[in-house]
């Protein structure tokens, strides 16, 4: 057996973590022969619930799960971790302005960035799930200067999975027949789900999704809107936000980052922008990436339609605004210290 690796999940008493912890501990992310020590981090009011989660993990009798460490102390939570799932965040409450939400989350992700910087392994892979995920990842990275910024990413895989599922249903093919659907930009309602580079296997032949669907008004209209608004639709139906699907997407994201992508296939990850595809530099922007040896690389040279370019510009502008707001919150916090 390999040496155990330490993995932290924040918001460990919450809804998403309830599905996520089981998937990680079963070996679905890091491999079926990789023992795991799970660090469960949450806030003090959640300690009782956390104890129940620890009992349930024990009762699952999972062979790969070596140890479970519940804690409310970031120093303990992030100690020597190789991977971090940052799920815990302040949820948006009714009537809350985006700036208020950013302000609350900036404080959380500053603390976690500082703890990662001090206590985690320097090659730790950090996935931010808690919203606003892109800007939370940016803040977190800026407080962990000793960890390469390529090691911070935001989750847009849920949006990619939603989009892939819509295309598969539209064409009446299995999910596995559709790949290279892209999410560009922010994990928000300005994201651009793009089927323009997608490939689908129909009757043994590989075709472009655009050709197979053969309906531009759908691909530029209800397809985009359905994916953009899917989170709200789940809340309306379930009275709670996406949890099982978010946990599965977090697993997919980290699995591919850890193990790499298949040749010719790419996945969507929110990563630091280098200005590719005219995106604003130095924001966390979702791009198509290929992954090898735990390193992602933005897929270059894709041809974008004018429609796509317009959409990228809108989501890029929002991310720049969020970044500026987050920085102004940080500045005011610094001056208040």
From TrEMBL:
One of its GO terms (biological process) is malate metabolic process. Residues 156-327 form the Lactate/malate dehydrogenase C-terminal domain. Pfam families: Ldh_1_C, Ldh_1_N. It is an enzyme of class 1 (oxidoreductase). InterPro entries: L-lactate/malate_DH (IPR001557), Lactate/malate_DH_C (IPR022383), Lactate/malate_DH_N (IPR001236), Lactate_DH/Glyco_Ohase_4_C (IPR015955), Malate_DH_AS (IPR001252), Malate_DH_NAD-dep_euk (IPR011274), Malate_DH_type2 (IPR010945), NAD(P)-bd_dom_sf (IPR036291). Belongs to the LDH/MDH superfamily. MDH type 2 family. This is Malate dehydrogenase. It comes from Drosophila gunungcola (fruit fly).
């Amino acid at each position: 057996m390999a040496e155990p690796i330490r993995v932290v999940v924040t918001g460990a008493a919450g809804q998403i973590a309830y599905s996520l912890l089981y998937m990680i501990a079963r070996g679905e992310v890091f491999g079926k022969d990789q023992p795991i020590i799970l660090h469960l981090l949450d806030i003090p009011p959640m300690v009782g619930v956390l104890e129940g989660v620890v009992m349930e993990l024990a009762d699952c009798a999972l062979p790969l799960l070596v140890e479970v460490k519940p804690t409310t102390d970031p120093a303990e939570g992030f100690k020597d971790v190789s991977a971090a799932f940052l799920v815990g965040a302040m949820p948006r409450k009714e009537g809350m302005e985006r700036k208020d939400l950013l302000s609350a989350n900036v404080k959380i992700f500053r603390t976690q960035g500082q703890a990662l910087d001090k206590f985690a392994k320097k090659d730790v892979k950090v996935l931010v799930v808690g919203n606003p995920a892109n800007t939370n990842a940016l803040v977190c990275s800026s407080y962990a200067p000793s960890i390469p910024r390529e090691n911070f990413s935001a989750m847009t895989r849920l949006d990619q999975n939603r989009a892939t599922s819509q295309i598969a249903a539209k064409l009446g093919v299995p999910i596995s027949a559709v790949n290279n659907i892209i999410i560009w930009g922010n994990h928000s309602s300005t994201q651009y789900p793009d089927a323009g580079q997608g490939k689908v296997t129909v009757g043994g032949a590989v075709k472009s999704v655009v050709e197979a669907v053969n309906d531009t008004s759908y691909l530029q209209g209800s397809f985009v809107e359905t994916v953009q608004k899917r989170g709200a639709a789940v809340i309306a139906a379930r009275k709670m936000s996406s949890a099982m699907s978010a946990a599965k997407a977090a697993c997919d994201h980290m699995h591919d980052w850890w193990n790499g992508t298949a040749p010719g296939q790419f996945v969507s990850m929110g990563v630091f922008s280098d200005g590719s595809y005219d995106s604003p530099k130095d924001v966390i922007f979702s791009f198509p990436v290929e992954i090898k040896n735990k390193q992602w690389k933005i897929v270059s040279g894709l041809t974008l339609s004018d429609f796509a370019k317009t959409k990228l510009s809108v989501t890029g502008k929002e991310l720049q605004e969020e970044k500026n707001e987050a920085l102004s919150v940080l500045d005011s916090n610094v001056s208040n210290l």
